[in-house]
Amino acid sequence: MNATMQQAAPAQVPAGAPATIVMDCKLDKIFYGDFMAVRDSHVPIEKNKITGFIGPSGCGKSTVLRSLNRMNDLVVGFRFDGHVHFLGQDVYGKGVDPVVVRRYIGMVFQQPNPFSMSIFDNVAFGLRLNRYKGDVDDRVKHALQGAALWDEVKDKLKVSGLALSGGQQQRLCIARAIATEPEVLLMDEPCSALDPIATRRVEELMVELKKDYTIALVTHNMHQATRVADTTAFFSVDISQGTRTGYLVEMGPTDQIFNHPREKLTKDYISGNFS
User: Fold this and answer.
1) Percent of the chain with pLDDT over 70
2) Which residues are 164's β-sheet partners?
3) What pLDDT is stored for residue 30 in this prediction?
4) Which segments of the chain are extended strands (E)?
């Protein structure tokens, strides 16, 4: 994966055909220094679907998510054993540039984090960073439309992004993420700081976005997972070695995970009997 990498054309999948796996993520071990944060988790991400990650606090959901586009590389002591196959390459392969990885695998964080600059410049930031040669104005408009924000801000593009409401700020961050047209969008609890009305708007937006993007979503809100996720991965915590190490318990269609889980641990968590 290098600076000249070409974005793959969307595959046409006939109805009833097997799902296309856009990311094959085999997470053998993830360390922070000597601490093993995650172990033994295989998480395939299907194209143009929303994959939800659920589980108790400390189970490694966000660690797994941030490993998919190498955001954890920025954490001192981080070490990754395994692979993340994407567009035919391992994003942890030798010579792979993490900055290029993040061009194709975007990220939306828990807290809305617009930059201290205008709405327009927020969305254009990634385009300029990647030295986009096309019409920046048109791409910014397209991204804001994709984030369902254009009609609300089209007459105030020079206003600071920090002047927007919390829900608008999060949609601005989504617009910034999709402006570079990534293949995959990682969303780390994007609604946790929003009120119910803004949460509903972002959830509706996620469902719209999966037509063009593949989404992986970390959420503490199980109702949210049932509303938007096509596939759900349940993670739990192993405390048998005296530390808290997250691992994947099971993964499957969201309806199956919530209504007919295979594992007792999943059933206990879903029913509120988890401890």
Assistant:
1) 93
2) none
3) 97
4) 21-32, 35-46, 50-54, 78-86, 89-90, 105-108, 184-188, 214-218, 231-238, 245-253
Residue 29 CB contacts under 8 Å (≥ 6 apart), including other chains: 36, 38, 39, 40, 79, 80, 81, 82
pTM, to two decimals: 0.88
CA distance 20 to 8: 13
Going from the C-alpha of 62 to that of each of 13, 88, 103, 219, the distances in angstroms are 30, 24, 19, 9
What is the CATH topology of the domain spanning 21-110+183-271? Rossmann fold (3.40.50)
Q: Give the Cα separation of 144 and 175 in Å (integer).
A: 5
Task: Please provide residue 223's backbone torsions phi and psi, each rounded to the nearest 5 degrees.
Answer: -65, -35
Asked if pLDDT for residue 12 goes beyond 90, the answer is no
| HSE-up of residue 30 (Cα within 13 Å, Cβ side) | 33
What tens digit of pLDDT does each residue of 115-154 get? 999 999 999 998 888 788 889 999 999 999 999 999 999 9
- Inter-residue contact 122 to 128 (CB < 8 Å): no
Distance from C-alpha of 222 to C-alpha of 53, rounded to nearest angstrom: 10
